[in-house]
Amino acid sequence: MVQVVDNYHNEGVDLVYEYMGWLQGYYAEYCIQRGICKQLSIIDSGRVIGVLLYYAFADYVVIYYVIVERGHRGKGYGKALISMLEKQYTAKTLFMASTSSTNTHAVGLFKSLNYTILSREEIVGRYGYSLLDLLTKLMCSYEDDVYMFKALGGAYSLTMLRKLRNYSQGIIELWHNICYKPWIDLFK
Ligand SMILES: CC(C)(COP(=O)(O)OP(=O)(O)OC[C@H]1O[C@@H](n2cnc3c(N)ncnc32)[C@H](O)[C@@H]1OP(=O)(O)O)[C@@H](O)C(=O)NCCC(=O)NCCS
Asked: How many angstroms does the Cα of residue 72 sit away from the middle of ligand 1?
């Protein structure tokens, strides 16, 4: 039997190591251990076959990693994970994720859920470099070049993105804890 489970234990991190590589696995584990990342899991007969790691900040929810085991892809599990997460939040929440433009399956997944996809260049063109810098910090997305956004309350809200500037201090603290510090710790 397949179930979507809230905050299942840490086996989900193994999928990050397996499919995204050790560095991403290390970042995911760091985020969970500090109580910042939470997770939803897809369980098939007691085994974790899909995981979504996320964190909430003010009215923003960052989808940090979403991964489905290779043999189970294309069956709607990625969509089920994101849909379950969306159900837990109110209409004023802005969901965001990032990936590489070459990751067509991930981009397709977010498109199928009506996320707006913007490249780094489009973000700079519309909002300026300082906002891209804040987004990159909030999502620790240095390796990514496309961003996905969805406001549950209706059309994708430009205002909510602009409002990120009001939270600069908090974003920098978060960045320090889940992005900068794990990087520095690698060299200790
Ligand atoms: C991205 C990923 C999580 C998708 O999981 P999944 O369970 O296969 O996705 P779903 O079956 O729910 O598919 C959802 C949508 O993606 C799209 N999609 C599916 N396969 C696709 C493909 N090969 N190319 C492009 N889009 C595709 C479809 O639009 C589908 O929606 P539809 O069924 O309504 O048409 C999975 O491919 C994965 O684990 N990739 C490796 C990890 C990763 O790169 N994660 C994203 C960055 S953190």
From this structure: 10
Instruction: Give the count of domains, the chain.
Output: 1
Please report the pLDDT score of residue 115 as a whole number: 94
- Coil, helix or strand for 41? strand
Q: Does 83 contact ligand 1 (Cβ within 6 A)?
A: no
Q: Show the low-confidence residues of the chain (pLDDT under 70).
A: 7-9, 154-158
Nearest ligand 1 atom to the CA of 108 is: 26
How far is it, in rounded angstroms, from Cα 9 to Cα 25? 15
Q: Residue 79 belongs to what domain range?
A: 2-185
Express each pLDDT in 34-55 by its tens digit. 999 999 999 998 899 999 999 9
* CATH assignment of the domain containing 149: 3.40.630.30
pTM over 0.85: yes
Nearest ligand 1 atom to the CA of 81 is: 12
Label residues 70-83 b or e (16+ Cβ within 10 Å = b): eeeeeeebbebbbe
Sign of torsion, CA 109 153 92 165? positive
